[in-house]
Amino acid sequence: xxxxxxxxxxxxxxxxxxxxxxxxxxxxxxxxxxxxxxxxxxxxxxxxxxxxxxxxxxxxxxxxxxxxxxxxxxxxxxxxxxxxxxxxxxxxxxxxxxxxxxxxxxxxxxxxxxxxxxxxxxxxxxxxxxxxxxxxxxxxxxxxxxxxxxxxxxxxxxxxxxxxxxxxxxxxxxxxxxxxxxxxxxxxxxxxxxxxxxxxxxxxxxxxxxxxxxxxxxxxxxxxxxxxxxxxxxxxxxxxxxxxxxxxxxxxxxxxxxxxxxxxxxxxxxxxxxxxxxxxxxxxxxxxxxxxxxxxxxxxxxxxxxxxxxxxxxxxxxxxxxxxxxxxxxxxxxxxxxxxxxxxxxxxxxxxxxxxxxxxxxxxxxxxxxxxxxxxxxxxxxxxxxxxxxxxxxxxxxxxxxxxxxxxxxxxxxxxxxxxxxxxxxxxxxxxxxxxxxxxxxxxxxxxxxxxxxxxxxx
Length: 459
What we know:
Layout: H1 7-15, H2 23-29, E1 34-38, E2 41-44, E3 49-52, H3 55-58, H4 67-79, H5 92-104, E4 111-115, H6 118-135, E5 143-147, H7 156-161, E6 179-182, H8 196-214, E7 219-224, H9 240-250, E8 254-258, H10 272-275, E9 283-286, E10 298-302, H11 304-310, H12 326-341, H13 344-361, E11 368-374, E12 377-382, H14 398-408, E13 411-412, E14 414-416, E15 419-422, H15 430-453
Parallel strand pairs: 3-13, 5-6, 5-7, 7-8, 8-9
Antiparallel strand pairs: 1-2, 2-3, 4-10, 9-10, 11-12, 12-15, 14-15
Helix pairs in contact: 4-12, 5-12, 8-9, 13-15, 14-15
């Protein structure tokens, strides 16, 4: 969105490099600077209000400006702002949080390594997978399986494990020899004439073939998001996640469920792997909704079985200065408490059904090829031709056009190429859901009208 450059925007433009910076756009437009947040809304420096249908970055579960949370953070800062958790030192919030996670995690997942966010949780899982396999007697198991349209983070290892369109650039190097990417389990983009059940069979056979090609004796783990969030909110075919896990375990391959987005209520459950997809993984990576965005914190949650296999007279030489940070852990405990006490999982399931119905209603729009999602995560896929599913040329920047039009109406949705994704806070109301759908439809109408005026085909 092109903004009039204000004092704060100018300071930001001139001195702050943003994640995923596009240099030309940053110099030309400057940022949209937010100064306040309350509940499901944000306000920019001019005082303009926006309904945040993105939920920050998939993370503002309990909403912004929560006074109870603010008091918790302040009190913990006064009591104990920081202490190391290296080797044999701990703190009260991290101990209580690890125990609470063991209580709500899938059965048998009783151990947690705290990290600084989702990327470092995935990086930690990458190391732990090799560590476990080594102590199982398989030091050669260093390879990793992942999928296209996946996003697993931005550290060197996690960025290499992910494979999302547009993320890989020639200026960076990536781990390539030991990381292998399978097809995205995207039913909308399955081969023509293939049923969803047949597509699931094809995906599992592809997995078997890849294991045979690489050699099971070389593979440490399979990293998979239950729902591929940043890859386009891809909901896999029914039974795929369970069959994938069964296939991996048959070959001694660890299953790592990347629930950085899907955990802590996004899909109406604490964790999606077991409750929704029928899989108790060996490890779960999590972050984002863990603290509702109030503090940076990640958690690698893993089974008691893995702990027993790893333990003994040896070191796991990995961790971070801010692992188990007491203020971050206090924030997570308070967020979990509020979600439990206020019934936000149940509320998410209720209002999420209304949200999904509203999204589906947009499929009659000429720009929308598919609207998809689960509970409080959603995506519209914009296409040039609904019948062939052909995409608009990249230079039209269709997702950004839609998000710009929505932003002008006070609605924030996230553009990702030809997609627009949403993940509103768990506290969102039915009226706010209706507002999202109404304004999104108007934004689509405006973009379609603009394309027609430019001589573009609108199916």
